[in-house]
Amino acid sequence: MNTSVTVLGLGLMGSALAEALLGDGRTVTVWNRSHAKADPLVAKGAVKAETAAEAISASPLVIVCLSVYTDAEGILGDAAGRTIVQLTNGTPRQARALADRVTGQGGRYVDGGIMAVPPMIGRPEALILYSGDEGAFEEHSETLAVLGRPQFLGGDPGLAPLFDLALLDAMYGMIAGFQHAVALVRSEKVPATTFEPMVTAWLTAMMALFPEQARAVEAGDFATRVSSVATSQVAFPGLIETSRDQGVDPGHLPALRDLFDRAVAEGHGDDGLARLITLLERPAR
Ligand code: NDP
Question: How far apart are the first and last CA of the chain?
C-alpha cells in the first residue's frame, strides 16, 4: 500500500488533517500559500513542497482543504493519475463541476464534508462525509479513516456537500431558535444562564418528534395525534407581538408564520407538522 499523502491548505483544519496523518506514520507532503504555515509540520516530519503542482505530483492521494471552493479550483492543476479528496466546504454544483474537471484530466474525485472542528480530527467522533468515485474512496479508505469516522454517501460528488449543508441548516435553525428565546427572556433581565438548562431540556425533548416526522413525510401520512399545523399556527401572532412588545427583533418568526399560514390556507390545518416539509419542497412564489 502506498502511504504517501499530500495536503494542500494548512489553515486550522488542513494542519489538523496533516498532523493526524503524520501521527499515523504516513509520508505527508504539504503545501500552503503562505509557506511559513508548513514549518511546524515539517518539524514533525512533513515534506514541504514549493508549489501546489509539486505537491500534487508527490502523492497518489491529494487532500485539499482551503477557505472556499474557488480557492481550491484555483490551485488544482493537473490531476492525472491522482485521487483528489476535496474537503473544502462548497455546494453540490461546485463539487460536480470540479469532479468533471478532475475526471476529464484522468484523475479520480471524491468530495467531502467535515462534521467536526480541528481538535476532533483523528478521533472517531469526527464524522467525515464522502461521495464521488467509490473505487477511489475504497482504495484510500484506511488513510481517510485516520482523519475521523468516514461515511460514504454515494457516487454523486454533490451528495457530501448536500448532506453537510443540510446538517448546517438544521444546526443554524436550532441555534437561531435558542438565541431568539434567550433574547426574549433577557428582555426581562432573566440571565441567559438561568434560562439555558430549561431550553436545552425542552429542545432535547422536542427532538423525539423527528423520527415520526421523517416516517410521516416518507409515507405521505400526515394524520397526527400529537400537534396539528392549525394548533401551532395560532402561536405565531403572539410570538411576534411579544417580541415587538419586549423590544426584540422578531428574527426568523415571520417567515415561519408565513409557512404555517400557507399550510392552513392550502387546507392542511389538521395535518401534523411534517406537512410543512412538503410546502418547503414547493417554494411560495
Ligand atoms: P483557515 O482560514 O484556517 O485556513 C484557510 C486556508 O485556505 C489557509 O491555508 C489559506 O492559506 C488558504 N487559502 C485561502 N485563500 C486561498 C487562496 N486564494 N489560494 C490558496 N490558498 C488559500 O480555514 P480552516 O482551515 O478552518 O477551514 C478550511 C476548510 O475547512 C473550510 O472550507 C472550512 O469550511 C472547512 N471546515 C473547517 C472547520 C473548522 O472548524 N475550522 C470545520 C469544518 C469544516 P493562507 O494560510 O496562505 O492564508
Answer: 55
For the chain, what is the radius of gyration of the CA atoms?
23
Check if the beta carbon of residue 41 is closer than 8 Å to that of residue 15. Answer: yes
Q: Report the pLDDT value the prediction gives residue 203, as an integer from 0 to 100.
A: 97
For the chain, the farthest-separated pair of C-alpha atoms sits apart, in whole angstroms, at 66
Cα 146 to middle of ligand 1, angstroms? 20
β-pair type (108-115, 127-132) = antiparallel
What CA–CA distance (Å, rounded) separates 95 from 73?
10
Q: Write the residue with the smallest CA distance to atom 1 of ligand 1.
A: 11
The CA distance from 176 to 231, in Å, is 22
Cell numbers of 58, please? 508527490
User: Is residue 274 scored above 80 in pLDDT?
Assistant: yes
**Nearest protein CA to atom 12 of ligand 1, as residue:** 66
Helix (H, G, I), strand (E, B) or coil at 85: strand
Ligand 1 is surrounded, with C-beta below 6 A, by: 9-14, 32-34, 37, 65-67, 71, 74-75, 88-89, 114, 117-118
CA angle 23, 29, 35 (to 5 degrees): 110
pLDDT digits (tens, 9 = 90+) for 140-199: 999 999 999 999 999 999 999 999 999 999 999 999 999 999 999 999 999 999 999 999
Pick the CATH number of 187-280 from 1.10.1040.10, 3.90.220.20, 1.25.40.10, 3.30.1700.10: 1.10.1040.10
* 4-155 fold: Rossmann fold (3.40.50)
DSSP string of 197-229, one letter each residue: HHHHHHHHHHGGGHHHHHHHHHHT----SS-BH
